[in-house]
Amino acid sequence: MTKLKQYEDEFIDIRAYFKLKREERGYTYGDVAGDYLHRTQIARFEKGEHAFSADALLLAIRGLNMTPHEFFALMPKENFNKIHEFRDQLFELASLKKTEKMKMLLKKRAKSKIDRIKNVMLKITIYQVCGEDLITSSDCAFIITYLENIKQWTKFEVHIFDFCLTTLADEDIYELGMDMLKSNELSQLITSHRVLVKRTMLHLFANLVYRNRYSYARHMAMEIEKMISDEDMEAEIVLSLFSRLARFKQERNLVVYGELLQDIAVLKKLGVTALVDELTYHMTKFCSDEGISVSDDT
Fold first, then answer.
1. Are 260 and 248 in contact (CB under 8 A)?
2. 37 strand-pairing partners
3. SS3 helix, strand, coil % of the chain, rounded to 5?
4. Is 37 helix (H, G, I), strand (E, B) or coil?
5. Which of 87-91, 174-178, 190-194 is the least confident region?
6. What integer pLDDT is reported at residue 295 of this predicted model?
7. CB 228 within 8 A of CB 236
8. pTM for this entry
C-alpha cells in the first residue's frame, strides 16, 4: 500500500467516525458549524467531496463538544464497521454450517491485529458448528493481551470481548467485564451502546454460572441490575433464569430443577431455541457429571 493510499484510507475512516459521533449526539450540520466553518463544508467532508484542513478539522471536532484528545483516543484503530460486518458474515456461515468456507477464510500468516482477531473469531465459530477445536494457546494469549491493553473501550472492543468470552479464563473475563464498565467516563460507552454492553454483560454472567464461578457471577448480576429498568423484561428473564441455574447447581435442589424446566418450556413457546438448546445441554451434562438423577416430570 502506498503512503498516499494509506492516508486516503485513514481519512475515509475519520469521515465515517466523525459522521457517527455527530449522528449519535443528534447534531445537524448547523449544530456543528460556526463562524469559521460552514455547514456545507461539513456535509461535503462527510460525503468525501471536501478535505478539511487541520484547523477546520479541529473546529469540527469542537463543534461535536469533544476535545481533539477525546475524538482521536476513542476512534477505533480499524474501521469500526468492519468487525460488525465480519461478525454478521460468520453468523450467516454458521447458520449454513459452511465449515470449509470458514477454514478458507483463515489467514495462515496473519500479522496485523485485526487479521489475528478475525482468525480467532473464525476458529470459535468453527468449533461451535462442528466441534473441531483449532484455537491455540497462542490465540488465547493474544486475545487476552489485546483486551487487557485497551486504554479506552469502544463498541469495537465490546464486540470482540463478547465474541471471544469462551476462550478466556474465569478471572480474566470477570476483570475485563469490570474494566469495560469503568470505561464509561470518557467514551460514554454505556450511554451510547447500552444494548450491546448489557447483552455482553448477560453473556458474561451466564458464562460465569456455567463455569461454577458463583461469587464472580453474583457481583456481575449486581452490576447488570444497575443497568436494567423495570420495562427491560428480556434482561430480567435472563438474569432470573441463570440465577436460578446457579442456585440449582449449588444446592442440587430438584424443586429448583423443576422450575428451570418450566422456564425452558416458556422459552420454547417464545421460540428462543438457541438458549433452550444451550441450557438443556448444560443441565443434562451437569446432572450426568454430578450423578444427579432426574426425570421428565421432576
1. yes
2. 34
3. 75, 0, 25
4. strand
5. 190-194
6. 66
7. yes
8. 0.71
